[in-house]
Design a protein that fits this description.
Elements (H helix, E strand, L loop, with lengths): L2 H4 L3 H8 L3 H10 L3 H10 L3 H10 L3 H11 L2 H12 L5 H10 L3 H10 L3 H10 L3 H10 L3 H14 L4 H13 L3 H13 L5 H17 L3 H14 L7 H9 L18 E9 L3 E8 L4 E8 L4 H19 L9 E5 L4 E4 L7 H5 L11 H20 L2 E2 L8 E3 L5 E3 L6 E2 L6 H4 L9 H5 L6 H17 L9 H7 L5 H4 L5 H10 L11 H9 L3 H9 L28 E6 L4 E5 L4 E7 L2 H10 L10 E5 L2 E5 L3 E2 L5 H13 L12 E3 L4 E3 L13 H11 L2
Antiparallel strand pairs: 1-2, 2-3, 3-5, 4-5, 6-9, 7-8, 10-11, 11-12, 12-14, 13-14, 15-16, 16-17
Amino acid sequence: MTIAEAADSPEVAALVHQGRHEDAAVRARAEGHHARAAELFATVWKYAEAIACARVAGELAEAYRHALTSRDRELIASALDEVSRSPAEAPKAARIAEDRHRTLDAAVLRYATGELADAARLFQEAGELVRAAECQEALGEARAAGILYEQRMREAPEDAAAALALGRILVAMGRFEPATHALQVVLRETEASVDDARAARRLLVACFAALGLSEAAGAVLDQLRADDPALPTSVPEMLRVTFGDARGLVSDAQRELVVGRYRVTRPLGEGSAGRVLLAEDTFYGRAVALKALRATGGAAGRDALARFAREARVAMGIDHPNVVRVLAYHPEGPYLVMELCEGGTLADRLGGSDSPLGPLEPSAAIAIAKSIARGLDAVHRRGVVHRDLKPANILFSTAGEPKISDFGVAHLIDLGATMTGAMMGTLETMAPEQITGSAKPDATTDLYALGMILHRALTGRLPFEGGDLAFAHVEERPITASTQAGWLDGAIDALLARMLEKEQSERPSGASEVLLALEALPVRRYDDAFESRAPSAAPERLEVRTSSIPPPSGPHIARYLDVVVHADRTLAKDELLGRLVELRTLTDDERASAAAWSKIRSPFVQLVAALEESTLVLEHDGVVGGAPDPDHLARALLAIHAEGLVHGSVDATHVLVSPRRTTLRLPSRLAEDPTASAEADRAALARLLR
């Protein structure tokens, strides 16, 4: 007897015993046992009914299996389409397809799960060379993609789309002569689209010019101008407008284009490790986001470069609508080329000068969380933990679709993690194991961060108020969302409580489990209660009371209230966390050092809560002066020196004393001081404690 048979009700079991399988299936369906009903319907070849029951049971891979057994093309196509859109069921269906030697179906399903290398292999086995080549391009394997396009051209010389794709790859590799042959195929084929023909002619002008064939380049330009008279009349001017230099693709001046290809338009944003630029991809004629690493010297610079390269490898292997697509990686620079998301960030929506900090409408917050969960599911299936999920890393497409970005600190699960690496991330959303280094981050680490993001989006606040945020993550129980936002209830409290458990084993097992829980929430009831809530007065923002030093400015510090400038520091209230922080404006030469200081996670060194544009946000737990704890200060210096840093300003003005501990404030100047040394720090501490 099978497990399914053992679970049959007496009525179903009796019908099965009598050989009345269809009646048993109908009975099982009526009892709500849809998976069992699907099995029973399949035994009597009622495959349409079996598929319908399997779908109701959520077993889309089984529905696909029944469709294959039916040999009904329409049922197979429908089941394949449905299961390919299910992150949980698609891998199971892919294995079924491979077992049944349905190679093309398996390729489609592997592609749907983001397994691009396997998808490329299977598409190639199925004879779908163009789709295999597209997978290789997505993986950054341009040469392998070019070989596949060449094979396709030998099979179907009239395939204009494949010819254009091959031409672009050859141009990017500097192989201008073979590129002209591929591009001319596009122009010969009457089936080629107008846009493809125009793109081919633009590249041909550049290729002919690079080969010294000025008359041929001029003839192609004349063809372009027949469709678009606004184009320049001369080849050099056309090349200057299109590729950034009158000498075209091979000119020395082309280096003004980033890696000879991307024309930077303007900056989009900047962080401690690099900047993001709006650029035009001159080969494809499309707008892209170009992420450039701000490399520094020494071991820290090498570590940053290694993380950046890992971000490229990880992100290029993930193809999901809720993950920012990485189009290319260029080691020279280095640069990541990403799809352009022009809808801003979740951080913009949760706080800023144009949109005051506050809760989102519950349906909007939960819809965003669902999208993030779907993206995380795809990320985790690739064996990756993001480890720095936060509102600033959630981008919105032009259509408003949330997308996870920035895998600069992502880590491959199967490579293991060092304790140093485990403490990377952003304090507001950092899981306890990242702060203490007590365990290797895993998928549940990202679910903790998602819980923090969802709580903030629903309530406008984090679930910890005041005090030491790092201590709260590790030791304090979070405040329930319904306590801070009365329009919510116990259902969301229960979900958030599981996501924010201190122990990784007690959190949800995966993003798909979180997604199911989010879908079960009474969203409409939350929205109705949210709309009928009593309006709250906007918080009063106080003026600066002294002006001995200029306070930081800009929309990124709009969440900080009651700004007070003292002689040597700017203090403010963080509205989100209800705590006192110190805001510090960084000079250009301090920015690189600030990133190194932000890595220190000692409870006895002032914590860097955020690095926002040119402003450093520091926790300020305690008062300056008082009787310091010598052991705490000694341990603070040990943590600083372990990172290869030197304080250089160990004195009473840099000591914060609270009832729980003594903290050493960050030095007044973060830029490297050649006269400072660890020995000088220890001597200064000895003088301070006399």
